[in-house]
């Protein structure tokens, strides 16, 4: 059984299929930017008319809308009044001299707390990104020299089997070093781990290899921050130069 309201078309609603052909383009819905601009203009004019009519009062401390009167002359929020009292060492208005009781005033609006929450979230995200960058640099410092030795050894081995080719190691970029370490077979990673184990505890080596894998994944998607790649290649090339001589 179908509901009766579904069977009766809304009087204002035209059949969707015919709308496009009947209505001229100019009568179509305005673009979202125009709607947003109109809405903003509307909000501003409402605000102006409220200010003119004194319909909206604002806190003398934070200048945001506030409906709790603190003294004879001013409106304040609870937390703003507390801050005011702390700043002037007295819960008393500097203008009219009337004392106020912060606990009897209204709290600041929730959206202000939301904004603080967003700022905190952004700050945490920035801190996480900074930590990640620092960890990547530390990783580059640890892994790059060993990576150069490993790749050089493999190239040398290939050279013995199929003629000169060591020069091809030089024009490598960060992406190709990382991807060839990760995707050329487990031998490269085993050799790298073994080499790192000479100087590092097992847990550090495991973390370094797992970061190498995740950096290889990141290269295929969002990329890795440039400072990590730059440091890695500087240290990588230093080893090559020592081992191969100047290009
Ligand atoms: Zn306030
Ligand atoms: Zn006052």
Structural commentary:
This is RING-CH-type domain-containing protein. By secondary structure, the protein is an all-alpha fold. It folds into 2 domains: 44-108, Herpes Virus-1; 133-244. Helices cover 63% and strands 0% of the residues. The chain has helices at 4-7, 16-22, 32-52, 78-87, 110-162, 174-183, 186-197, 202-220, 226-244. Mean pLDDT is 80; it is low at 1-26. It has 9 helices and no strands. One zinc ion binds at residues 71-74, 93, 95-96, 98.
Core attributes:
Herpes Virus-1, 247 residues, binds zinc ion, 9 helices, mainly alpha, single chain
Distance between the termini: 84 Å
Q: Provide the low-confidence segments as ranges.
A: 1-26
Give the helices and strands as they follow along the chain: HHHHHHHHH
Q: Work out the helix count.
A: 9
Inertia-based shape = elongated
Broad structural category: mainly alpha
Oligomeric nature of the chains: single chain
Number of strands: 0
Number of domains: 2
The largest sheet is:
none
Bound molecules: zinc ion
Q: Percent helix among the residues? A: 55-70%
Q: Write down the Rg.
A: 34 Å
Mean pLDDT: 80
């Amino acid at each position: 059984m179908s509901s009766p309201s579904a069977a009766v078309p809304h009087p204002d609603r035209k059949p969707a299929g015919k709308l496009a052909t009947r209505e001229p383009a100019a009568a179509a819905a305005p673009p979202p930017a125009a709607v947003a601009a109109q809405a903003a203009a509307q909000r501003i004019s409402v605000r102006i008319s409220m200010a003119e009519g004194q319909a909206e009062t604002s806190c003398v401390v934070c200048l945001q809308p506030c409906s709790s009167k603190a003294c004879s002359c001013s409106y304040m929020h609870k937390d703003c009044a507390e801050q005011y009292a702390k700043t002037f060492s007295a819960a008393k208005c500097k203008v009219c001299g009337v004392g106020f009781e912060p606990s009897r005033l209204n709290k600041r609006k929730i959206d202000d707390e939301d904004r603080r929450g967003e700022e905190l979230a952004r700050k945490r995200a920035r801190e996480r990104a900074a930590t990640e960058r620092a960890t990547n640099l530390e990783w580059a410092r640890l892994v790059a020299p060993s990576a150069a030795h490993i790749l050089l050894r493999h190239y040398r081995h290939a050279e013995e089997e199929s003629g000169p080719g060591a020069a091809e190691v030089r024009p490598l970029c960060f992406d190709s070093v990382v991807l060839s370490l990760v995707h050329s077979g487990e031998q490269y990673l085993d050799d790298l781990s073994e080499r790192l184990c000479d100087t590092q505890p097992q847990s550090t080596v495991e973390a370094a290899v797992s970061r190498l894998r995740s950096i290889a994944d990141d290269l295929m998607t969002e990329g890795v921050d440039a400072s990590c790649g730059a440091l890695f290649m500087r240290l990588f090339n230093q080893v090559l130069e020592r081992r191969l001589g100047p290009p």
